[in-house]
Amino acid sequence: MRLIWTAIASSALLGITACKSFPFPWKTEPAPVEARHEETPAGSTEDPARVRLELQDIRYDGWSLRGRLLITPEAGSIRLDKRLIESTALSMKSVTDCSTGRPVEFMVMDVFAKPPREEDVLLLKPGYWYGKDIRLPLIAEAPDRQRGPACIRAEIEFHSLEETPTLIHVRAEIPVQPETEAPPGASLD
Questions:
Q1: CA separation for the pair 109, 85 (Å, rounded)
Q2: Which domains does the chain have, with CATH numbers?
C-alpha cells in the first residue's frame, strides 16, 4: 500500500511540474518585438534572398524524373549544400497526371545525410549559378509494378541552408518510341 501511495504522489508531483508556469503561477508578458530572435544575422540589413530555379534537359521514363537543376539568387545571397541530396535539399511536393489532373502516387524517401562539411557549403551571390544533375525517383522499379503516366506535372521544393523553400513546377513526358516497319534482321514478307 505504501508503494502505491509513493507512486501516486510522485506521479502527481511530476504532473504538476510539467505545467508551464510551475512553480511561479503568474503570467509573464512576451518579449517586445525588438528583443526577439531575428531570422537574419545580427547587424545584417540584407533582404531575404529570392531564389530562381530552372530544370533543364528534363528526362522522364515513368519511374523517375531527371534533369540539370540550376540555382541562382535573384536578390540577396544564399548558402546551399553543394551535394543537393534528394529529399534533404530537394523534395517532391506533388505529382499529377497531365491528361486527367489526378494526383499520382509517388515515393517519399527519408534520407539521413551527414551534416555538410565546410567544403560542402557554397555561398551563392546574385549573378552566379550553381547546377547539378539530379534524379528524383517517383515509383519503385519492380517487375510487378506499373510505371507512371505518360505525362506528369510535378512540383519540386528546394531548400537552401537558411532560406524558406522555393518551388519549381515541371512538366515531363515519356518519350515516344519511333515505330519501325520491322525489327532489324526480320523480313517484310
A1: 11
A2: 50-173 (2.60.40)
- Whether the ω angle into residue 126 lies within 30 degrees of 0, i.e. cis, is no
pLDDT at 28: 38
Contact 131, 71 (CB under 8 A): yes
pLDDT, mean of residues 42-60: 78
* Distance set, CA 33 to CA 29, 37, 162, 184 (Å): 12, 9, 21, 75
DSSP-derived letter for residue 3 is: H
pLDDT digits (tens, 9 = 90+) for 108-165: 877 788 889 999 999 999 999 999 999 999 988 777 788 899 999 999 999 888 778 9
Distance CA 115, CA 21 (A): 36
Q: What Rg value do the Cα atoms of the chain yield, rounded?
A: 26
Q: What does the buried/exposed string (b/e) look like for 112-144 if buried means 16 or more CB atoms within 10 Å of the residue's CB? A: eeeebeeeeebebeeeeeeeeebebbbbeeeee
| 111, 115, 160 from 79: Cα distances, Å | 20, 14, 6
CA 37, 38, 43, 48: dihedral to nearest 10 degrees?
A: 160
Count CB atoms within 10 A of the CB of residue 156.
24
